[in-house]
Amino acid sequence: MKNIIISITLILLCGLSLLSCGDSPIDDNGLLITDRELCDITRFELLGPDNQTVLVSHSIDTEKATVTAVAKFGTNIKHVKPYCSVDLDAIVTPNMGEWVDFSQPRQYTVISGNREVKKTYTITVTVQGQ
């Protein structure tokens, strides 16, 4: 009897899991497309070769779509890894988390969860005391 109850429970759980998968739309990267329209950078981080932060300060202006950051004195901003947080379900292109040269301002585009709204941010990094 116990085995029958367990079997029925497993069959019901499998059936429910199949129903919950539905036809949710996904993008080319296999990420779920939602109805969210927000596309802002909410946090910014910059790591050095030792994977430790090199930032002294930074500011994010969502109206002007800019990030202005100051790295510690002596940081080689030609070889740093940027990371950011964005609004829920939004994505960033090009990808962050790779070695980048910030000796010149760089642009990153944040794309909303519904993939219809885009905002291009200009990120400028300077070195403290220079």
Mind sketching the topology for me?
Layout: H1 2-21, E1 41-47, E2 55-61, E3 66-71, E4 81-86, E5 91-93, E6 106-111, E7 118-127
Parallel strand pairs: 3-7
Antiparallel strand pairs: 1-4, 2-3, 5-6, 6-7
Describe the structure.
This protein is α+β, with helices and mostly antiparallel strands. It has a domain at 41-127: Immunoglobulin-like. It contains one helix and seven strands; from the N terminus they run αβββββββ. It has one helix spanning 2-21, and strands at 41-47, 55-61, 66-71, 81-86, 91-93, 106-111, 118-127. It has a five-stranded mixed sheet, with no helix packed on it. A hairpin with a 6-residue loop joins strand 6 (106-111) and strand 7. The longest helix has 20 residues, at 2-21. The protein is elongated, with a radius of gyration of 21 Å. The model has no long low-confidence stretch (mean pLDDT 88).
Name of the level-1 CATH class of the domain at 41-127: Mainly Beta
% residues in beta strands: 25-35%
By helix and strand content, what is the structural category?
alpha+beta
Strand order of the largest sheet: 2-3-7-6-5
- Record field, number of beta strands: 7
The biggest sheet amounts to: 5 strands, mixed
- Rg, rounded, reads 21 Å
Low-confidence runs: none
What shape does the CA trace take? elongated
Order of helices and strands: HEEEEEEE
CATH topology of the domain at 41-127: Immunoglobulin-like
Distance between the termini: 77 Å
CATH architecture grouping of the domain at 41-127: Sandwich
> What level of helicity do the residues show?
10-25%
What is the arithmetic mean of pLDDT? 88
- Total helices: the number is 1
